Amino acid sequence: MKILAIIFIISGVFFFFTATVGLLRFPDFYSRMQATGKGDTLGAFLSLTGLALFNLADGFSLPTALVSIKIMLIAVFIFIVNPTATHAIAKAGLDCGVEPWTKKDSSKVEGEKGKNS
To answer: In terms of residue numbers, what domain contains 18?
Structure first.
């Protein structure tokens, strides 16, 4: 059970890491929101599932089962709320006039670099 819990926790940390890389590498607000929204949701869900399993690994009793149930309720809450919050933030950005990145934006920046060199 502990090995399965560790696999879940490591998988969750991996998705947190990839979401952070997406936040740093993607070009605009919307793609960064997509990377962090999906990565953080899955990372939190997997990590909390691993913690709940790890809690049960030492022995199954009523107190450990209740703690694991509470951890899973937190995981389900994050699984529902995080995509909703990401959608609301992206809609607020759209309403405020934040323009999505396009390929022509990339060529404009490269052209300006060539002129300044």
So the answer is: 2-116
